[in-house]
Amino acid sequence: MSGHTLDGEPDAAATPVGDHAERDLLSELKRTLSVLRGGQFEVPPLRPGTDGPLSRFSVPANNEEVERYWVNAPFAYVVVTYDTEASEHLYHVVEPDLDASESALLARIRRDIREPLLYHDGADPTGEQTLRTELASVLGEYGIDVAPATFHTFLYYLLRDFRGYGRTDPLMRDPHIEDISCDGYDLPIFVYHDTYTDIETNVAFDREALDHYVVRMAQRSGRHISIGDPVIGTTLPNGSRAELALGEEVTPRGSAFTVRMYADEPFTPIDLVQFGTFSIEQMAYLWLCIEHNRSLIFAGGTASGKTTSMNAVSMFIPPRAKVLSIEDTRELSLHHDNWLSSVTRQRLNEGTDIDMYDLLRSALRHRPEYIIVGEVRGEEAVTLFQAMNTGHTTFSTMHADSVETVINRLENEPINVPRPMVQSLDLLLVQTLTRLDDERVRRSKTIGEVGKIDQRTGELDYASAYSWNVETDSFDRHDSTLLDEIRRDRGWTQTELRRELRNRERFLRVLADRGVNDYRQFTALVNEYYAHPDEVLEWLDAAQEP
């Protein structure tokens, strides 16, 4: 898509700047004189306190400002307002100001700076230093002396459009946003904000800009999208998951996209406890089950946090165990020395597709102890359950809203896992995204233990080890067959089992009290517990002393 930035805005190479030939002649004259006299433009430092703000924002009529915060200081920030007439919040992206002449100059710079960017030094992976140098060089050639604020404003937009995500770049940088949704041409983008939930933004694309944006998003993720193949799902360079649609054949209101954002740092079990998704008691229970090679499936609806929870509890995997993960798009992130990550591949021009089934068959040849599959939904499920039956511990996710629904989906089309195989599964964790006190929350609805086939009825037995009490927003504990199995396997008494659970609860509670939620630090401490439990418990006792 030559001639356009990521936003789909035409470069000067595609569209001449201005309607007056005099402006072009003057620019060329200045450029020629600059070259003849060897003019150079020195990069000025930006001093916000001296140079003043790069942008200004006026609260719209009938709106009240709620808060504002930086997303790319000192260039872009967000202002959230409340529309008193419509009774809704609005999300405003504020970027550096450009007047008409500056916009025209920036368009010409985009044209002249493009070629050096295509061949920039690999030692500058972000391209920022290359852009800074080339911008100074181009301005020197023009013989134009701009203020420091203007120089850095130009640099911001060049970085945003060539190296960032164009108009959505501030949204991508906002750590409070979970989803970004564009539904068509000239329609405001909506985001899901962790404070204001679904909220309308002041960002929108016209027809040409949106079409080019979707194409460039696909290209940046190494995929192809066209009118003939107008829908793709992909992973963006920043790790976000994107669903892209081009044109109006499948999305009548025009090209569209949805981006699911993922935290730069994965959530840990401590985070999930602090969010109220699980209790410390549940996490200690899951830790013991995972250590003792119990297989599990996380189930729930869209955005219920299935993959997030699976990634978090995978941090309980013993440190030397070999782990292999299989995903359609890269979402999992573990701090584990012996971890092999694999993703599926869709054929572009040549070669063959590599799907979940292919990767899972290959995975078994690597002899992993733990296999993590992003989601089961087809023929790969039978192979996954075969792996369970041959001693592999497996974790996966599935779209379902109850234990009964999970079992029904596993046993019927298109998955078709035979019932005797299903009983090799140990745990079913059902999560839900719901409202509690006018706030959207994620909760572990049920932790079910899968039993054996009832010889009288032929049905698969299962029981609930924990269930969420919506009235008290707490978790009720029930009898656990799995804990009894672990106790017998280890030769523990009931007292020893309870002591082991209490020790792990104490470990997690101290980490929660101290806010230890960095996944690297958390995993290191869990590994230390595996290696030297008594010393770690002594450290816990010392940490609790006033």
What does this structure look like?
The structure is a single chain. Mean pLDDT is 87; it is low at 10-39. By secondary structure, the protein is α/β, with parallel strands linked by helices. The protein starts with 20 loop residues before the first helix and ends with a helix. The protein has 18 helices and 18 strands. It folds into 3 domains: 21-46 and 98-164, no CATH class; 63-94 and 168-260, Beta-Lactamase (2-Layer Sandwich); 269-544, 3-Layer(aba) Sandwich (Rossmann fold). The strands form 2 sheets. A 9-stranded mixed sheet has the order 1-2-3-6-5-4-9-8-7. The protein has helices spanning 21-37, 48-51, 100-118, 128-142, 148-163, 169-173, 207-220, 269-275, 280-291, 306-313, 356-365, 380-389, 403-411, 419-422, 481-490, 494-513, 519-531, 533-544, and strands spanning 63-72, 76-83, 88-94, 177-182, 190-193, 197-201, 231-235, 241-245, 256-260, 296-300, 323-327, 339-343, 370-373, 393-399, 427-436, 439-453, 460-469, 474-477. It is globular, with a radius of gyration of 28 Å.
